[in-house]
Amino acid sequence: MAQESVKNQRDGSSNGRDEKDKSNIRSTLYSQFEDLLEENKKSSVEKLLLKGLNQLIKFYHNSECYQGSTSSNKIEGELQNNERSSSNDREFFRERSQSSKGSSTVYGFENEVLSLERMLLKSGSVDQFKAIAVVGMAGVGKTTLCQEVFNKEEVKRHFVPRIWVCMSRQPNDDENFKAVIVKRMLECLGVDDEVINSIPKDHELSGLVYALHLELMTKKYLIVLEDCEETDEWYEKLYNSSSNGEKWGEQLCHGFPKGYGGAVIVTSRNEEVAKKMVGEENLLQLQPLSDPESCWSIYKDSVVAEGVEFISQEQLKEKLKSKCGGLPLAAKLMGKIKADQQGNAAAQAQDASHQEY
């Protein structure tokens, strides 16, 4: 079961292992994935998936072995670049802002689902604004957790409208990224492009934030801001209300009306960024899954989702436990790889059968 902690640099881990131990871990991991890449070098799909999986496992094990933030930040940067270039059908890292689609079965996050739901629907003032952050390393399941809660019937009844907005920068984004973010929200809320584009450029940001505020006024909204990494003060203190001493657009929080029961959920890998946005007391922190059966279930579902019959193998199950590091995304990627392997094998067998005739 995932417990709440974002810091995967576990205390004493580097002191507890000498350089020989670290080297052995790295060598074992690299050789395992080099073998897999060699076995599947003819399949471009598998190569993409294996590349993503390799980066995830490397990130997880290196963060366990090393306390140094510079090394970990470099690895995380490589992982982030890989995420943005990998296959387009993954549900964890979407390429553009959109409302969240229906989620698949969630394993290992039962307590976290309940915690997040309670934070959203907790008793007290029904009109109180809530700002919550889900924090954890890449691939740990932040998006899946939020999707599960986002699509719960009670949450749907409680919050209208509900929108899901990706906060990642895209190659074709305007230089004024703050304006891009607000435009994404307005588009998700169904505001016409004509209205959005009618805002004068010399007052664009303040006009967009004001338009967002008006659109959400009196509504009990739920907004998920996925993958927040920006460190600009403009994104901070989402729980603040606009005051007479501030101009529209000086803070993102001005776009979120207070006093109507609205809520914002932030997902981020950066704990400090999340704290500044929602406050330290409103963090929900995720750790890799400690229950091997949950990873196995994710793996099985991923195989079946590709339209391939799942064949249980205890030996494979043990390998999965050792390789995925408790990361749901790693287990899912491994399932896709296995499905692709089985599909290729079936196709080759069919071709061979046809050639015999």
UniProtKB/TrEMBL annotation:
An MF annotation (GO) of this entry: ADP binding
Q: Gene3D superfamilies given for it?
A: P-loop containing nucleotide triphosphate hydrolases
User: What biological-process GO terms show up in the record?
Assistant: defense response
Instruction: Give positions of region: Disordered.
Output: 1-26, 70-104
Q: Where is the composition biased (Polar residues)?
A: 70-85
- Keyword check for Transit peptide, yes or no: no
PANTHER family per the UniProt record, alphabetical: AAA+ ATPASE DOMAIN-CONTAINING PROTEIN (PTHR36766:SF41), PLANT BROAD-SPECTRUM MILDEW RESISTANCE PROTEIN RPW8 (PTHR36766)
* Protein name (Swiss-Prot/TrEMBL): NB-ARC domain-containing protein
The organism encoding this protein is Acer yangbiense
**Upper taxonomic classification of the species?**
Eukaryota, Viridiplantae, Streptophyta, Embryophyta, Tracheophyta
